[in-house]
Structure formats: structure tokens, C-alpha cells
Amino acid sequence: MESSAEKLRGLRITSLDEDDDETVVPHQPLPGPSAAAMDYEDDDEDEEEEAEVTIGVLTKPERPGLLLRHLFPSKAGGIPAWLDPVNLPSGKSSCCGFCGEPLRFVLQIYAPIDDNDAAFHRTLFVFMCPSMACLLRDQHEQWKHKHGNPCRSVKVFRCQLPRTNAFYSTEPPKYDSSDKPLCLGAPVCHWCGTWKGDKICSSCKKARYCSEKHQALHWRTGHKNDCLQLISSSDASKSVLPAIGKVHAGTSWPEFEIKIDYEDTFDSDSCDETNSKSLVMQRHRKPDDMMQSWMDQFEADADNKCWASFQERVLRAPMQVLRYCREPNAKPLWALSSGCPSNADIPSCSFCKGPLCYEFQIMPQLLYYFGVGNQPDSLDWATIAVYTCQGSCDQSVSYKEEFAWVQLHPTTPTRR
């Protein structure tokens, strides 16, 4: 008989075309090699066989409750489904290094490692400041990572647990009403629903917040009146505080489930070209022959070629918001040839001091689903590549910060 561990490991990728209205498809862990197989390749090495890439696309959950933490989801927007629900990141870890505001949840991916017992459950979480001004400053700080502890507006946290842990059953989820976590999580902010609520309202002693700003925002938007009701009410069941999982409008991006499939299953010929181009921004240049000849000698031409190649590759699956591959020869799909990190630019793991390896990247199409507009300070990027500890080290810290490299869109002005 198949063991419970084998059942959980057997939750593998299924085609996005194979929909079944009668059953709920279990969340699919992202595939990856063993930690021992990971190794960096030099930039100047000859081209080798291309690694198989997994694509992530967004869909609304089939029913409520499918994105809760004890079901180990991959999701974007909304609030995080913390893997370790008690020992959350706090303090400066939860804030933008530039404006000091609490970071907003972007996405999480469930990516266990088969031959690492400490990573039987493993989820990567991405957060960022919604300010483009901070992201522009982040561009220059990421180059300084080898020379200290730079400020960042984009942060990635890795959390992993062994099969036997204090939070979840050793049995795989059944995806029905019987699935329950083993314990409650830490109280979170009543405004954003994301970070630990370390601060308590001094009046009602019930509302919790992650920061003074979120406490002030909650007070101005209704808690001033609610607080009086909480003080005068002796019945806790009549609480006017928002329910767990509910946050105030504008404090999070729309919530989606991330469905995964291999890139080569997408048929680019069947894509609607008009819709594809609406998701992948185009750039048009028509230099004359003399100017083109002059440009050939400079890096700008290499950027143009790289951008064209980037567009062509993305159009195979224009709805993709995520590209994942933890194979030894995996590399990000860069939009520009300039501004790419070399191996020397990628820092070591800040915990075990071992090397980092590329694991996944976030595509600009995510901004479309999040409804991000075109205002001067609206977020915009070409791609965000995430590098994680090659050995997925198991240290005493529950949420270990990894490294993100942000490449801006070619048309985005840079700030020196």
C-alpha cells in the first residue's frame, strides 16, 4: 500500500486543460532536483541542454477555503498562508528598507525538496513595497549586497518544515472539511492581515497591529467607533473586529491560486496574438541604416535583441506570471542583457554561507492581474529573479531571507 509520504510526494503536475468539475485538484508542489545536485555554472560556459521550465498561471480558487495554510497552496495576492503560523518575520524584516512601511504580500509557492527531510514542506514567500520610487532605489542597493546589508523594497522568505511538526498532520490533505491545522497561528494585524500583531490597541485591548501607521489607518476608518463598542460589550462573540483572513480594501492585491504546468505544453500557435501583446509590452524602434550600424557596436543593440528574445519566449504562454526551475543548469529569462547579475554578484546564503541558486522568477504580467495602473508611481518591472540557498539549509530561524534581483522594464526611467 502506498505510504502517506508517497501520496503527498505524488501530488505532481497535471495539465491545465484537464479540468474536472466533480473533484478538487490538489495543490501541485513545484518540481525540483535534489539539493546535492545543485551547482552553479559560469556565465561564459558553452550552451548546454535547456532546463525544463514550469509555468505558473493565475486562476480564481474553485471554492472558498482552498488557499488556507494547511492545504499548502501556491497563491498570489490576498494575505499570505504562512507555513509556520507562529514565528512570523517581524521588525525591520517586514518593512521596506526605504520608506519604512510594512511590505505587501505578492505571492508564495509551495516547493518541497524530495531528498531533504527538513524541507518536506517548503514554501517561498515574496513581499514588496507598492511604491515604484522605492523599487527604483532598490535597483542600486541590490548591487551592494556583497558589501554589507543593503536596504531592499523586495524581500523573499523561505520557510520549511519536516514531515513531523507542531503545525500539521503527517497525513496528506484530503481536501475536504476534515482538513484542519493542529494549532492556531499568531495574531496578525487587523488592518493588513499579513504581519504579526505585536501592537495592541491601548483602549479595547483587542485590536492588534503590525505598525503604528496601520493602527492609525484603522482608527481613522472606523475603529474609533468600534473601539467604544468593544469596551462596552461584555460579549466577545459580538466583536466588530474583522474576521481572520479579511482585510481592508486597498491593503492587498486581488487573490488568485497559482496553477502550474510545463512550458512545453503550451501551444504558442493557438494564442490570441492581440491579447498576448496586451500582456507583453512591445517596444518599436526604426533607426536608419547609419544609426543601426553605429548601434551595433554598443550594448544598446544587445539589449534590443535580448528584449525581442524575451518577448518571443514569453508569447509561448502569454498568461504566465511565474517561471520556476531549480535544475542545476537553470537560468532566468532576462529581458535585457545589461543589468544582469554575474555569479559574483549573487551573495552567499546569509545563514549557512553556502552558495545561492536560481529558483524562480516573477513576470510583469502579474501587474495586469493585480490591476496596477499606469500612474507615475505605479509598480513596473521586467522580471524579478529569486535565488535561494542551494542546500536549503535548516537553521534556527523559521523564515530565512533569500535574495531577489529586480530587472526593470526597458522603458522604465532609472534613478541615479
UniProtKB/TrEMBL annotation:
The lineage of its organism: Eukaryota, Viridiplantae, Streptophyta, Embryophyta, Tracheophyta. InterPro entries: PDCD2_C, Znf_MYND. Keywords: Metal-binding, Zinc, Zinc-finger. The keyword Zinc applies. Residues 189-227 form the MYND-type domain. Residues 1-48 are annotated as: Disordered. This is MYND-type domain-containing protein. It comes from the Eukaryota. Residues 39-48 have a biased composition (Acidic residues). Gene3D superfamilies: 6.10.140.2220. GO terms for molecular function: zinc ion binding. Pfam families: PDCD2_C, zf-MYND. The keyword Ligase does not apply. PANTHER family: PCDC2 PROGRAMMED CELL DEATH PROTEIN 2 -RELATED, PROGRAMMED CELL DEATH PROTEIN 2.
